[in-house]
Amino acid sequence: MPKKNVFVLSILCLISLALSAADKKSTTSSTEASKPSSEQPAKENLDLTMYQRIRDEGLAHSHIMEYASALIDDIGPRLTGSPNLKRANEWTRDQLTVMGCSNAHLEDWGEFGMGWQQLNTWVRMTSPDTAVFIAQAAPWSPSSNGAISGAAISVEIKKDEDIDKYKGKLSGKIVLLGEMREVKPVDKPLFEREDDKDLAKIAEHPLLEENEYAQYMRDFPKRMELQQKTWNLLASEHALAVILPSRDGRNSGGSGGTIFDDSRGLGQSAYKREHATPLPVVDMAIENYGRVYRLVKAHVPVTMEMNVDTKFTGDHEHGFDTIAEIPGTDPKLKDEVVMVGGHLDSWASGTGATDNGAGTVVAMEVMRIFNALQAKPRRTIRIGLWTGEEQGLFGSQGYVKQHFGFVPFSTAPDQMKLPEWMRKPAGPIQLKPEQEKISGYFNVDNGTGKILGIYLQENAAVRPIFEQWMEPLKDLGVTTITMRDTGGTDHESFDAVGIPGFQFIQDRMDYGSRTHHSNMDVYERLQAGDLAQAATVEAIFVYNAAMREQMLPRKPLPHPELEEQRKAPLKKVMPGAEEVPEKEAADNK
Ligand SMILES: [Zn+2]
Question: In terms of CB atoms within 10 Å, which of 45, 56, 348, 581 comes out highest?
């Protein structure tokens, strides 16, 4: 997922853990991490012959679209917990073995929840006119057990009091849940590349935190509660099924046949049996929704018919990451690791091509390039293909917890109302010995666009290193470095425990407008040239990290446990203020 503004729109792919800035007084158990950046050489020793060989293999002899078609067309959508994702885990493991990697295997990151498949979905209007609509089951929707038919009714619940007015009115009805949104004309391109102005903006560090996301998070528990009450009402009143209006995308992309179909609107953790959605639910194209909505609002009786054919394949499915390696060859450095990856899971209405088939096949192609060139990296290069990313970075977080360390989450009462992945990090961070042996992690999960640079994730010491690595890549469009951190994908799991973890800056394309979590996230949206470039550039970054004498410099370890104290307002700062007893001051807040 891209920048935080997109993040706010699209809840689930992006999770900003709001990691604290470096705490200067912190000590860390990692010897490497405590080395000042002055111990890093001023000049990087670049193997430009290897640059050329990687470019030749990655750009002129790319096989990335073969991996893409196998994963996207043959295996298809890869919802976490689903049989397709299991197949994808096994296929990636086997392909990594075939290309020459060692130790390809699956690692269990823990219990996820329900396995689910959409077998078929159709929705139509039968009166006052017949019409065929564009709709797909929301993930983990129960089956309608055959075709069902009922009168359409509009339900709009914005506050608790709205609930009462629907009592006794919903039985046997097909519910249009939520008001009709504005559908603006598509007067800007859905497909865009970043121009110089966009890149300059990314390079510049924002001086004030963007507040939208904080506001969104503050309101989240309340919204969840109302959503839960709404679903309870629909179930207890015996509504037949629910239709959700598809949300909009960037530049009005949520129209014209594109539906965004994730678990937004379903309440908390719809993949857990205890939070299971009680009745069939679909996401429907906004124009189709609009027609029925306007008729119902004008008191024209509308009858609809639909069939939501879905299947649950287990209540306690586990999640697995695909892991494989190219062993290091330097006796002194081979126990150290450089990691590359992306997430293998997707949503279900498209085929998960750009989110994140793209990052998956880029990482696989990186490994293929090294194998094809018979590269002998000094450090071990390891690929991680994560799952459960869309529900909260579960796979990468699980892997990091098992190998490197973890951040305890807050148990404050307000935080306990949130799903675990949304809770504030509470610290102190607990580390494992392996944490000292990983140099860095590189991630691609912002769609199909080529790599334009890198987010430093506020790691200032790594800037001069990456600047030198990027110099010979300028002709491929790799030009921009920003101190910004970017949220919402698996590099955050590494960053959270003090490991240099990076997401590249990628060209925007039609990710936010059309493909991200949509029924149109399919093979045709992939851009072969961009993906070949991304694999080439990522391979060069990974190779450089595996070959240089030092590990990558680290930020001081985050200290989430000090965050509240550091953000608390200063005391006694107003010279003219009278002394107020502490209790009263707290009450006045
Ligand atoms: Zn993603």
Answer: 348
- Residues with Cβ within 8 Å of 415's Cβ and at least 6 positions away in sequence, in order, are 409, 423, 424
| Residue 587 pLDDT grade (very low, low, confident, very high; cuts 50, 70, 90) | low
409 beta partners: 425
- Determine the length of the chain: 589
Determine the distance separating the centroid of ligand 1 and the alpha carbon of 407, expressed in angstroms: 22
Tell me how far the alpha carbon of residue 2 lies from the centroid of ligand 1, in angstroms: 9
458: CA distance to ligand 1 center in Å? 22
341 CA from centroid of ligand 1 (Å): 12
User: Which DSSP helix (H) or strand (E) runs through 385?
Assistant: strand 380-386
Omega before 278 within 30 of 0, i.e. cis: no
**From the CA of 542, how far away is ligand 1's center (Å)?**
21
Q: Are strands 303-326 and 281-284 parallel, antiparallel or unpaired?
A: unpaired
Please name which of 7, 24, 26, 25 lies closest in space to residue 16, comparing C-alpha atoms. 7
Instruction: Tell me the whole-structure pTM to 2 decimals.
Output: 0.92
Distance 1 CA to ligand 1 centre (A): 5
**Phi, psi values for residue 41, rounded to 5°:** -65, 145
Ligand 1 mean position, distance from CA 389 (Å): 7
Higher pLDDT, 354 or 9: 354
State both tokens at 183: 């559908």
CA of 354 to the centre of ligand 1 (A): 8
pLDDT-derived band at 217 (thresholds 50, 70, 90) equals confident
Report yes or no: 443 and 342 within 8 Å, Cβ to Cβ: yes
Q: How far is the CA of 264 from the centre of ligand 1 (A)?
A: 15
C-alpha of residue 580 to centroid of ligand 1, in Å: 50
Q: List pLDDT tens digits, range 26-70.
A: 333 444 444 555 589 999 999 999 999 999 999 999 999 999 999
How many angstroms is it from 331 CA to the middle of ligand 1? 36
Cis peptide before 128 (omega within 30 of 0): yes
The answer to whether 380 and 324 have CB atoms below 8 angstroms apart is no
The band of 267, judged by pLDDT with boundaries at 50, 70 and 90, is confident
SS3 content of the chain, % helix, strand, coil (to 5): 40, 20, 40
Going by C-alpha positions, the residue among 28, 29, 37, 4 that lies closest to residue 463 is 37
- 8 Å CB contact between 88 and 351: no
Q: Could you tell me the distance, in angstroms and rounded to a whole number, from the CA of residue 342 to the centre of ligand 1?
A: 8
Count the neighbouring beta carbons within 10 Å of the beta carbon of residue 226.
17
User: Distance, CA 408 to ligand 1 centroid (Å)?
Assistant: 24
CA of 229 to the centre of ligand 1 (A): 30
